[in-house]
Design a protein that fits this description.
two-stranded parallel sheet; alpha/beta; single chain; globular; 3 helices
Length: about 170
């Protein structure tokens, strides 16, 4: 038992030491992020087929280069200055998670709900007051929708048209 505790102690202290030497952000990126995670378009473009998770900061629009990443399953654009979701986002057929927290979105257009693999859509902390959904969307696989901290006075009736929704 003492040997196991001693080994665990050395592993933990070596990881803490590594974190202090590399910086906490670099340590977390290298040790706690899923394989295929990229933090810049430039690095992701080197091996576009390996990109599964893309996390971008400091942008104002969706970079069209995202379309090169055919295996992308998660796109995190938290805390940017994005004002709208482009219609071409529908071409991201493997995308399962779209995170747009803390942007400048005013509305959500219907086409975002036509992403065939999308299961989670996080729109927390925008300025959204309307949804543009005209008819039931039975094709969506969306199960989780976060609309917290937006400008709704009532839950949009369009949300009722999302037939697979489990959590809002």
């Amino acid at each position: 038992k003492n040997k196991i505790l001693l080994i665990a102690f050395f592993i933990i202290t070596s990881h803490i030491s590594m974190a202090q030497n590399k910086g906490v952000d670099d340590f977390l990126k290298s040790n706690l992020t899923p394989e295929g995670t990229y933090y810049s378009i430039e690095k992701a473009k080197i091996h576009p087929e390996k990109v599964r998770h893309l996390i971008l900061i400091g942008i104002k629009i969706f970079p069209v280069e995202i379309l090169e990443f055919k295996n992308l399953i998660e796109l995190d654009l938290t805390n940017n200055s994005i004002e709208q979701i482009p219609s071409w986002v529908q071409k991201l057929t493997n995308l399962q998670i779209l995170i747009l927290r803390g942007n400048k979105l005013n509305e959500v257009s219907e086409f975002v709900f036509y992403l065939p693999s999308l299961k989670e859509l996080d729109l927390w902390g925008n300025s959204i007051s309307t949804f543009s959904i005209d008819h039931p969307i039975t094709e969506t696989r969306l199960e989780y929708l976060n609309l917290s901290m937006n400008k709704f006075t009532d839950l949009p009736k369009a949300v009722l048209k999302l037939t697979h929704l489990k959590k809002i």
